[in-house]
Prior knowledge:
It is an enzyme of class 3 (hydrolase). This is Acyl-coenzyme A thioesterase THEM4. This protein is of the alpha+beta class. The protein has two domains: about 5-55; about 75-185, Thiol Ester Dehydrase, Chain A. About 30% of the residues lie in helices and about 30% in strands. The protein has three helices and six strands. Strands 1-2-4-5-6-3 form a six-stranded antiparallel β-sheet, with helices on one face. It starts with a helix and ends in a 6-residue tail after the last strand. Tetradecanoyl-COA (MYA) binds next to helix 3, strand 3 and strand 6.
Amino acid sequence: MPDEASAGDYAAMIEDLRGFLDRLSSARPSPEAVRCLREALTGWSAELDRSQVPEHDRVFGRLAGLPGRGQTMSPRLEIVETGPDGSRGTVRFGRYHLGRNGAAHGGSIPLVFDEILGQVARVNGRSLARTAYLRVDYRSITPIDRDLEISARLVSVTGRKYVVAGELRDGPVLCAEAEALFVELRPGRP
Ligand SMILES: CCCCCCCCCCCCCC(=O)SCCNC(=O)CCNC(=O)[C@H](O)C(C)(C)COP(=O)(O)OP(=O)(O)OC[C@H]1O[C@@H](n2cnc3c(N)ncnc32)[C@H](O)[C@@H]1OP(=O)(O)O
């Protein structure tokens, strides 16, 4: 993990990357702008080639206190309250997550549910659990570019099985709800 000082820089870089992806996805760049961006990207890739590490040493997605654990794969999730039986937070789908007509892409919604439901399945020292199923019901359009409320609650624990449910809301409007089963891994299982 980076030290405290560089963790701040890393967090800011991840936010910049989110902003970049939003801008890229809503741009219609000129051929000259594309060439210029490509050149810059090639330089950044070469820089990163110098610091590739094995999975265990990665930083991306492993910074617990940061929105979305410091990764950009799923929309920006910020947990504001967490406990043994549930958690709640805000999530913002950017322009990068646009499906069509102002609505978030249907595939980006399970990504966030897997994150927040998976975290509930893992709190309080519970061992590593994997998603066995994740069911999402889309109740209403999920808007992009504004903070939405998201919550997860532990429904049941049966042996190694954790059922967790979640809701995604835009104020009074229920956008989507989810249910997932997480199964605690057997000892020694990768
Ligand atoms: C900042 C710090 C970083 C940390 C990150 C923090 C959080 C990150 C959050 C992100 C989180 C992201 C997380 C991810 O995305 S994890 C990635 C996505 N998930 C996977 O890749 C999982 C692939 N599947 C498996 O590995 C196995 O199938 C598992 C482990 C799930 C079970 O294989 P295992 O051999 O262990 O168990 P078993 O087969 O004996 O079954 C045991 C029981 O479970 C019941 N069962 C099983 N499957 C299903 C099903 N589909 N529907 C209904 N029931 C099912 C089964 O009937 C049985 O019930 P019972 O007969 O005992 O009653």
